[in-house]
Amino acid sequence: SEKDARIRVLERSINDKEQIQELTADKIRKLSEELEQLHHDKIILENQVNKMLHDFAGKDLSTAGALYQKAVSLFFEAKLKEAIAVLDDAVLDEQLRQIELQEQKNRDAESKLAEAFTLKANMLKLSFRLNEAEQNHEKAIQISPSCTTYLNAAKFYQFIKELEKAEASGRKAFEHANTVGELAEILYQMANIIRDQYRYEQAESLYLKCLEYQKGFAKSSFQARLQVAITLNDLGSLRIAQHDFEKAEEHLREAADTLSDLTKHTQPQAPNGTHLDVILKFIPYHADVQNNLGSLYHRKGDFAEAAQIYHIAYLLIRKSASLNTNEYLFKL
After folding, report:
1. Which DSSP state fits 217?
2. Nearest Cα to 238, choosing from 253, 249, 225, 254?
3. In angstroms, rounded to a whole number, what is the distance separating the alpha carbons of residues 118 and 142?
4. CB 328 within 8 A of CB 321
5. Region for residue 16 given its phi and psi (left: phi exceeds 0; alpha: psi -120 to 50; beta: otherwise)
6. What is the pTM of this model?
7. How far is CA 157 from the centre of its chain?
8. Residue 224 half-sphere exposure, CB side, CA atoms within 13 Å?
9. pLDDT in tens, 203-243
10. CA angle in degrees (0–180, nearest 5) for 310-316-317
11. CA nearest 53: which of 19, 80, 27, 21?
12. What is the Cα–Cα distance from 282 to 289, expressed in whole angstroms?
């Protein structure tokens, strides 16, 4: 090896009397130190080789891959360069790529299975088989611990008023969030959970942070703009509970304007859809905002204005129910 060759050169240099006479004491010392270090390195390498041989000797190679077995066989034959060549980077990288592809397929399969368990949990919830629903949420998380599965569990626990479990699931969802959209959704859900615990100031902070994220990408999609309106409506309702009527009305009016703008500019999604379909889609959201505005004026003592706004909310819901009974009943 190169180390052995260098050791032989150094040994000849140090033992050659003529060369020694030409060398200074400092040079001789440096050559001696280099020779000693090389001997030390050689011993370390030999020990490492012996350890590798010992490890291989006690290992069942029959279950190892073909490349691994071939490289080890060449190593036993002291053909180190050939063994390294067998483990070519391109070959190893391709095998790594195949493993990563398979892992992605496995993750996709796990995600789909988790979705199935979540769907079953939601159906069980509608049947008030709550213990079974909880078990299916737990299975979904076990299979695919993700932002989505934890957030679904948080919503379920909020529904059954297990608010500590809901908050814990929401925090786990935070740990698995990968996008701004996911963060905004978690903040919104956490604000609702915290609000249900009457921790209004903390809920307010979460709603406001959520709106920062939502308004940041609100222009990108219809759903994002709709979620802004929903969050503003909920924040307005929270302000009413805090007796901050001025800010409550500000948020609720902004929610109403956002919904009106969406209703005006959204195109029907179905091929033969009409603008009436769009109006029907937004009526429940308009009604919810009007209902909160009615509550606001009622709390302020302006009963006449409250009655008028409540009546608008009532007419909106009644119209929606008469034109689209199935969807209305499902939302109830």
Report:
1. S
2. 249
3. 12
4. yes
5. beta
6. 0.67
7. 20
8. 17
9. 999 999 999 988 887 676 778 888 999 999 999 999 999 99
10. 90
11. 80
12. 11
